[in-house]
Design goal:
The chain is of the alpha/beta class. The protein is 38% helix and 17% strand. It contains five helices and four strands, in the order βαβαβααβα. It has helices spanning 12-29, 46-56, 82-90, 93-96, 110-115; strands at residues 2-5, 33-37, 66-71, 99-104. It has a four-stranded parallel β-sheet with strand order 1-2-3-4.
């Protein structure tokens, strides 16, 4: 499992550099479960969301199926455009069959969801 924790707010290139480094590590270690704890981010810029969908996710190997969990703060959940980001993955045929994404408010249930062997149903949890 790749675990990415933000200790402070960042966006644009610092955010992208962090996720690119995580992707390199995941690829070299053959990791397919991602836990991204974004509770310290105030929001995610639309340009960063588009980069995630159009650049980072398409760069992942198509031979694997990925589970990506984002832990967000209830106070910034709407500012993360969580439903929009998830919808962008679900409606992209190239991504929908390899990435299952969900958003959570606590770390408690995330690891069980990420490591579950049951194929996910893509149903929203929030």
């Amino acid at each position: 499992m790749v675990q990415v924790y933000w200790s402070t707010h960042c966006s644009e290139q610092p955010l992208r550099n962090l996720l690119l480094e995580a992707a390199r590590h995941a690829a070299s270690s053959h990791l397919t479960a991602w836990l991204c704890d974004m509770q310290k981010l105030y929001y995610m810029e639309m340009a960063d969301q588009n980069w995630l969908i159009n650049e980072l996710f398409p760069s992942l190997s198509r031979r694997n199926r990925y589970r990506v969990a984002f832990v967000v703060n209830i106070n910034n959940y709407d500012l993360m455009s969580s439903y929009q980001t998830k919808s962008m993955v679900l409606h992209n045929p190239d991504l929908a069959h390899v990435i299952t994404m969900d958003f959570f408010l606590t770390n408690g249930e995330v690891k069980g969801w990420l490591l579950s062997q049951t194929p996910p149903d893509n149903a929203p949890s929030l």
